[in-house]
What we know:
The protein is mostly beta strands. The protein is 0% helix and 58% strand. It contains no helices and 11 strands. The protein has strands spanning 2-7, 10-13, 18-26, 33-39, 46-52, 58-60, 68-73, 78-83, 92-101, 104-107, 111-116. The strands form 2 sheets. Strands 2, 4, 5, 6, 9, 10 and 11 form a 7-stranded mixed sheet that branches. The protein has a 4-stranded antiparallel sheet with strand order 1-3-8-7, with no helix packed on it. A hairpin with a 6-residue loop joins β4 and β5. The termini are far apart.
Amino acid sequence: DVQLQASGGGLVQTGGSLRLSCAASGDIFSIKHMAWFHQAPGKEREFVAAISWILGRTDYGESVLGRFTISRDKTKNTSYLQMNSLKVEDTAVYYCNVGTGPYTDYWGQGTQVTVSS
């Protein structure tokens, strides 16, 4: 199993920046990718960004493209989500996710991001 600890959320004004971190522990050698999702009140959980663990290939949701950057530090077993030019509509609980195979993934506890106008 993999355990995840997300951190870095908070309150920021429109146009501001935040960096989220997701530290993995446990069976880290099984990690294939790390990802971030967010879920706003009353809405479904939505894909934000993902990075492949070995090659570092990235993918982004359309709503964050050009504003958010996902990265990972393999020495720290941690992924990061740098969020710039934040908008009110980015307000959500952000969850980190780790995939260890085609049908197995793990979720962190979520961290709240609130963007005020």
